[in-house]
Write a structure and sequence with these properties.
This protein has a two-stranded antiparallel ribbon. It has three helices and two strands; from the N terminus they run αββαα.
């Protein structure tokens, strides 16, 4: 791969990670909302416009948590691939490359 191709892949990966982080924040908030709504309700829970039993609502909350864990694993994989791409850049880095690497490392 050419250096420019590696850099473009790193930029794409950084953008994917940024989107994934935003999605995870939203999913975390939904999970917290569902958990609190389930715990603080009685026998029936009105969750996302549906009336569920407390057990069913807790199962929905667990499923949301599992989806969140899956996104965490995807993010870890992105980090691993990104570190590999950064390693392939090597040598002297331009200002743009350094900036993208710093942004990537924040995620």
């Amino acid at each position: 791969m050419k250096r420019q191709d590696i850099f473009q892949q790193l930029v794409k990966l950084k953008n994917r990670m940024r989107g994934l982080m935003r999605l995870q924040v939203v999913l975390d908030l939904i999970m917290i909302f569902a958990f609190l709504r389930t715990v603080l309700s009685g026998d029936t829970v009105n969750l996302f416009g549906a009336v569920l039993t407390q057990n069913s609502a807790m199962i929905v909350t667990y499923l949301i948590a599992i989806i969140d864990l899956c996104f965490t694993q995807i993010r870890k994989n992105y980090l691993k691939v990104g570190r590999t791409l950064i390693g392939h850049l090597g040598g002297q880095l331009s200002e743009d490359e350094v900036m993208v690497i710093r942004q990537f490392e924040r995620y």
